[in-house]
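dude i think i finally got it to work??
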Amino acid sequence: MEIGISTFVETTPDVKSGETISHAERLREVVEEIILADQVGLDVFGVGEHNRQDYAASSPAIVLAAAASQTKRIRLTSAVTVLSSADPVRVFQDFATLDGISNGRAEIMAGRGSFIESFPLFGYNLNDYDELFEEKLDLLLTLQKSEFVTWNGKHRPSINNIGVYPRPVQDSLPIWIGSGGNSESVVRAGLLGLPLVLAIIGGRPVQFAPLVELYKKAAAHAGHDLNKLQIASHSHGFIAEDRITAADKFFPSTQQAMNKLGKERGWGLYDRSAFDAARSLEGALYVGDPEFVAQKIIYLRKNVGITRFMLHVPVGSMPHADVMKAIELLGNEVAPIVREELAKWEDNQ
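look at this
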């Protein structure tokens, strides 16, 4: 069971002061968070791509590279790369470069993205949303498999037996598929035999179990080894010394961020009752003291089949010191409980 962190490097106004951290300062904070995550023994750190004012990381590979030479073991991934509006050749080159700097710890998490700003920014038509992703994923997988590439598509100029460099340290640069729970994307990942990341940020996580089974069924149909499949969860959460403190610190920025997005997307208001309900054992928020969060992760592993858990923190803007403390607790206290209990459980399966 791998355990790690994901972040969108948000720069929303502070709930109390109303002040907004600069993109530059938040980026430097994230590098510190990645270094700490490595020091406390976490397995992976993911940085998500966004192309709007309230997020600072439009180029995850560069952020991760800034931490790569200052870390030793932690894997470094996008979370996600918006592949539909990107050039797969440049994406591969960026992450192959990161792989070299980190000596083989880079990964790509490819997704269609839940925001649309990158499409007009890079000159793509939203009417081609699905077609763009399928075509560009095909090219990215071609680049993963071969140094010299020959490829033809509709939305990008053809490539005729051209070498793409640098090559990664890893024999095959890992490419994950990020999904918000769409059955089509889950089946696609299974048929291709690619590792899957589910954004489990609402409802009851056990409701994702049928999607995991659908993913495995598709993979089996395509002849892939089910024992090699990896399934990750990206889930909002926060850890403090006790459950009340964790909830009280995490709620204000989460409410602010959720209501901002809700206003854009027509959701209802997010209030404390919804937040508190999601903090239950079967809810989607991993907020609490180390023991409670550990038990929630164990519950997710046993009931959904997740093999990698990524705690998404912060949601909105939180004090850097609080985020660092949550990372420290995740690595030093939560992860050992999870690994020990799951090792015993898996031995008896």
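The chain is about 45% helix and 15% strand.
im so relieved honestly
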